[in-house]
Amino acid sequence: MVLNRIRNITTWQWILFLIVAICCLGSIAFVHQNHSFYDRPIAKVIDTTIKEETSVTDMHGNEDTLFVQQIVARIMNGEEKGRDVQLVNEYSSSGAYDQQYHIGNEVFVSIDSKVGEQVAGSITDVKRDKYVLVVAWIFVFTLLIVGHKQGLLAIVGFVLNVLVLSFALDIYVKYYEVSLLVVCGICILLFTTISLLLVSGRTEKTYAAIVATLVATVISLSITSLVIWITSGNGLRYEEMQFLTRPYHTIFMAGLFIGSLGAIMDVAITMSSSMFALYERDRTISVKALRASGLDIGKDIMGTITSILFFAYISGSIPMLILYLKNASPVGFALSMNLSLELARALAGGIGIVLTIPIGLYTAIFFIERKRARI
Amino acid sequence: MNVLVWLAVILLVLMIWVGGKSGARSFVSLFFNFGVVFFTMFFMLDANANPILITFIACIVIGCISLFYINEVNSKTVLAFIATMITISLLLFFIVLVSQNLMIQGFGEEEEEAIAGLSLYIGVDFVKIGASVIIMSTIGAIMDVAISIATTMHEVFKHTPGLSKKELFKSGVSIGRDILGTDTNTLFFAFFGGYLALLIWFKDLHYSIGDIVNSKIFSSEMILILCAGLGIALVIPIASWINAYYLVRAREKLNRVQKEER
Q: Staple partner for A121: which of A111, A213, A354, B94, CB 3.0–4.6 Å?
């Protein structure tokens, strides 16, 4: 049976499989040997001893244990390659901003002093690339094994979208006068076409879904901007928005729309493909029947897709909330500081999702009617 | 008035307008889900509690709300629930392993400004909290796939009751494949949108690729996206197998009963 299966694999599949395997092994071998590509010195931990252990209680009564760790590490690149460096690492058992190192870990170090043979330094960061890569390959293989062609297309779509986004942000950062909203508008156009064409091919239902996605995105964008404009942003705590190098308002709006785009596309393609399936099954189906069953499908998926979005946004703020509450912040303050933007994103996304149901419904009916008129 | 209140009211009105009664129910379940996340967080404040265990219980509650309250208790939702729980357990194990090796717990240096002035030695285990966050972010999508597979497989079985276990499994996986692309898309874009500011930050401050890949915040974000995709992919064979197993067993039982009656 296994033999039979192997015989059924076509040459193309073999070639694809071979390419993936070579890429996988090659890239893993590369990240294990890429130390010389980094400018910063990298050291591999070869010995650790715990020097000190102290229990601390902070001003809010939280108990924790602090450790001081003496580390000997061998430098892997640069001028000092092959020499041992003495490092001191302080870490806590909660590990919010620090961590314990074990033998075999690779870390970025900065060399502070050289006295004879003794090199001392401090740890600046962890070399994480090899683990990220391994997880990425596990992801790729799982998607390929479970999803076959659809899995491959999902990966291709992801990579293409990342490239588009990265390119668009390059343009935005380079030319200061380009508005972020224009860049994002073009991005949304490209994301929608790329993702939907990959998900369901060049068919009428894809075109219907693309039109529905764009219309719904524009309408929900207008509603959210209108609400923010009317209330003049009351209740949104931008001061907790992180990583700001630019005006916060536009970045927030742009993020909001890219964020809800995936969910809107999901609804649009589900609506249009199931309505086209109904039409294919019975070419004489009335518009009224189509509308009724389309609405039923919409009702079914509305709740689940909104909750996907809700969980994805809300959960991310848990660590920061815990930190705030453990620092004796009042609950209301901590929530409004850390959750207002996430909640706004989730709610705006939800509005987009619900709006897509009627929009997707009528777009699909329009396309079906046009197809019917042609025949 | 507050932006959030406005948006929530608009969402409620739209949901009722489009979905009627079931729309209202979807809104209520969003509210409940939010409450569960909120309570989960409160339980995690206790330094002696195990965040993984709390997450697991939270997932059970979320599953009950989203599967049993929105639909109802029947073989489809129970099977979807079991499949979700198995997937989450596998994923949790994997995530804890990965985040210990990657050291991606807690906050990165890019977040220094936000955490300045706060005491960081608060005694909770950030590795486990990080794992919980990933699970909570993806549970919505995992449940969605599980319930879609269960519903469609029951439908397939009703129309063609003679299918073997293997054929049933195959039909389940092929249903799952169709949802795989769109659901991963939903999550990818949600995460992209949330971290747009971070990406612009990297570009503005001219991070090299090496700096980006090794930074704590980027790798934790990457792991979140990859694990979300992994969860969605993993639930497909698990849900298909459980459903196939149950359906075939139910049929055999029925046949046996019919034989005995004769």
A: A111
Interface test with A, best of B4, B147, B169 (most A CBs within 10 A): B4
CA distances from A211 to A192, A207, A208 (A): 9, 6, 5
**Residue A62 and residue B6: Cβ atoms within 8 Å?**
no
> B96: Cβ–Cβ under 8 A, 6 or more apart, which residues?
B52, B127, B128, B131
In this complex, is the C-beta atom of B88 within 8 Å of any C-beta atom belonging to chain A?
Answer: no
Per-residue pLDDT of chain B (262 residues; tens, 9 = 90+): 688 999 999 999 999 999 888 889 889 988 898 899 989 999 999 888 899 999 999 999 998 888 888 777 888 999 999 999 999 999 999 998 888 888 888 888 777 777 878 888 888 888 889 889 989 999 999 999 999 999 999 989 988 888 889 999 999 999 899 888 888 888 889 888 888 888 888 888 888 888 888 888 888 888 999 999 999 999 999 999 999 999 999 999 988 998 888 7
Among B83, B101, B129, which Cα is nearest to B244's?
B83
User: Which residue of A lies nearest to B20 if distances are taken between CA atoms?
Assistant: A299
> Looking at this predicted complex, what is its ipTM?
0.91
Residue B25 Cα distances to A303, B30, B34, angstroms: 8, 9, 14
pTM of the model: 0.90
- C-alpha–C-alpha distance, residues B48 and B128, integer Å: 12
* CB contact at 8 A, A251 and A243: no
Which residue from B206, B48, B70 is spatially nearest to A303, judged by alpha carbons?
B70
Judging contacts by C-beta atoms under 8 Å, the chain A residues touching residue B22 are 299, 302-303
Interchain CB contact of A223 with B (< 8 Å):
yes
